Amino acid sequence: MQSKAIGIAVLGAALALCGPISLAQAPQVSLPERVAALKANLAASQANLRHYEWIETIIVSLNGEEKSRKQQRCYYGADGALQKVVVDASPPPATKPGLRGRIIANKTAELTAYMQSAVSLVKSYVPPDPAKIQAAKDTGKVSIDVLVPGQSARINFRDYQIPGDTLSVAIDIASNRVAGVTVASYLDSPTDVVTMDAHMGQLDDGTSYTSDITLNAPTKKLTVTVQNTGYRKTS
Fold first, then answer.
1. Neighbouring residues of 48: CB distance < 8 A, sequence distance ≥ 6
2. Residue 6 burial (CB < 10 Å; 0-12/13-18/19+)?
């Protein structure tokens, strides 16, 4: 499954780069084999999810106040592309007449564009991309933190997607299960700091999926939450 594969690959990358670190009785598998296992398992997880549909809920809050909420039914079409059908969404705010209305409309449009960029940023990090993990490994930008000896660890990938960002994957050492993913990144500039926290879920058949993601953009006082629920098989 996706989470197991990520755990195997990232642990292998850290061990290969950092030397012999006693985390647990991890199998002695070469780094290329670990990367191959990651790619194969990610493909298997995505293949499994193609037989599911679910509800994606995107909630945007500003200054702690919910500003919009959209629910979409997600499923894969016959062409293999992910389809999203809106099932519920907040109505757009009423427009005001005159100059004040135009100013509010411009600010709303600016914020909407920023929110869309934030949502796109979320989806660019989760699930982690095997090619970007490999690139971080190849350039020596991987480190490991032991959280609980013999039980859990966190693997960190620097400059994972853009210069200065960090993708961290928390894993259960014994099972190689991914417990979560955290990201430190930015949008428009390095001063426009964005943090992200994702939790993983597991379906009855063992398929892993991202259950919820929270993105915080403190410079804009913006929070974006993405929840994936109601998974059920379509075939």
1. 1, 205, 207
2. buried
Average pLDDT over residues 166-176: 77
Cα–Cα distance, 25 to 146 (Å, whole number): 14
- N residues, the chain: 235
Q: How many CA atoms lie within 13 A of 107 on its CB side?
A: 10
Q: Which of 155, 158, 111, 106 is nearest to 132 (CA)?
A: 158
Nearest of 192, 193, 175, 176 to residue 184 by alpha carbon: 193
CB atoms under 10 Å from CB of 180, counted, come to 18
Q: Count other Cβ atoms within 10 Å, centred on residue 89.
A: 12
CA count, 13 A, side-chain hemisphere, 171: 30
Tell me the two tokens of residue 46.
């995505």
Cα(3)–Cα(16) distance, rounded to whole angstroms? 20
pLDDT digits (tens, 9 = 90+) for 80-136: 888 999 998 776 655 556 655 555 556 666 777 777 787 788 888 887 787 787 788
